[in-house]
Amino acid sequence: MSQQRQQSQKNVISAFWIFATLVIVVIAFGFGLYFHTLSSKKNNSIPIEIEESNDSKDEKSEFQTNAHEISISKAECGYYLPSSKVAKYTADNLIDDNIKTAWAVNLDSPIYDCDALFGPIFTVNCNTVSEVVIVNGYGKDEASFFNNTRAAWITVYRVDYMVEEFPNESDIIYRGKLKDTVESQSLVVSPNFDNSKPTNKIGLIFSTKNSDGYYFGRKWNDLCISEFKVYGNSIGTGKLETNEQLANNEEWIREEAEENQMRLDEERMGPEWINGIWELNTTVSTALGAVRVNAKVCIDRESQQLVATDCGTTVAKGAYRISGNTIYCGDTYIDMDINNQRLEYGNGYYYRKVSDRYL
User: Fold this and answer.
1) pTM surpassing 0.85?
2) Shortest CA distance to 158 belongs to which of 222, 232, 224?
């Protein structure tokens, strides 16, 4: 009986320790979970500073400085509102950097009140289009803006590759809504636009297919647009260029123009070897017999002047010009033997150069 009691007490003690151990494990797990959650919240609340690579910074900086305004050499449209006493409404108003002027057309005319009104066409030299900017309506003043009609829907497209009535999707620069505001609106280029092709002409299409094609004027149904600009790259590299690259290109263009001018000057003055004094002293056989020739030609290539004498008589004097292999001065002409670098008198006789200096 005593042994059974002792065994029972041992079982109770063992159960107690097992229970206590389980309680301690549960409490420890609870504390661990609590501190883990608290630590996670702290980490999430602390902003993590991510170091931006120099390449990424340079790319963003370059993108911001890349886009430049493309020069529009011409804006044309065959129809426009007749000029008033104080204003004209032709398409060139769209590129004059003045929102107080506008291109306008009367939509009450049946020919213009159509599903697709093809508007002005702009001549540009653009390799890559990055955005277009438009000023909607007549920006002269508030009354002019609201009294006239504004465009609510527009298609900006590349004219160059059109073969059908409407442009292909790859030639549509922008198609969508315009805001009813006189503020400049930047129109983002469509992702479907093929920027790998150069763009020389850009056109506008206004549409009444959508019920919201126009914001109609309070007084007149004259559609007005004040300004249009194009941004991108006009150099021809296929990518936008920084201001530094543009400056380098301008320098290259200037140097190229100077070289072309120098080449033209060289061609006009003739080869360097003609400069100097040329003489011919000999007896020439002619149909009338032997004739003594005492001829002299003096050429100042730098000033493009020539003096020619024959037996002491001046036969030519003044500015000369060159065409092909012949020097002309007045009624006198002298052929050049380019291969042998000599001047021909005629009949197989040639001048002999006696000096490289003029007179």
Assistant:
1) no
2) 232
CA distances from 238 to 196, 233, 241 (A): 7, 8, 9
Q: What is the distance in angstroms between the CA of the first residue and the CA of the last residue of the chain?
A: 154
Distance CA 277, CA 6 (A): 145
Amino acid at site 128 = T
In the block, residue with structure tokens 């002491």: 312
Cα dihedral 171, 177, 179, 185, rounded to 10, equals -20
CATH 3.50.50.60 at 67-233, yes or no:
no
**Per-residue confidence (pLDDT) for residue 289, from 0 to 100:** 80
CA distances from 65 to 30, 57, 129, 239, 259 (A): 57, 12, 15, 13, 31
CA distances 26 to 20, 31, 32, 72, 115, Å, are 10, 9, 10, 78, 77
Domain edges within the chain: 67-233, 272-355
Cα dist from 202 to 178, 199, 248, 342, 351, whole Å: 18, 7, 27, 56, 61
8 Å CB contact between 108 and 203 = no
Q: The tokens of 97 are what?
A: 């950097």
Q: For 231-260, what is the mean pLDDT?
A: 63
User: What local confidence, expressed as pLDDT, does residue 18 receive?
Assistant: 67
pLDDT digits (tens, 9 = 90+) for 192-226: 999 888 899 999 998 765 456 888 899 998 999 99
Which tops the pLDDT comparison, 114 or 302?
A: 302
What CATH class is the domain 272-355?
mainly beta
User: Contact at 8 Å (CB) between 342 and 348?
Assistant: no
Name the nearest CA neighbour of 236 among 191, 192, 197: 197
Give the Cα separation of 117 and 257 in Å (integer). 42
C-beta of residue 136 within 8 angstroms of C-beta of residue 151 = yes
Among residues 341, 267, 261, the alpha carbon closest in space to that of 301 is found at: 267
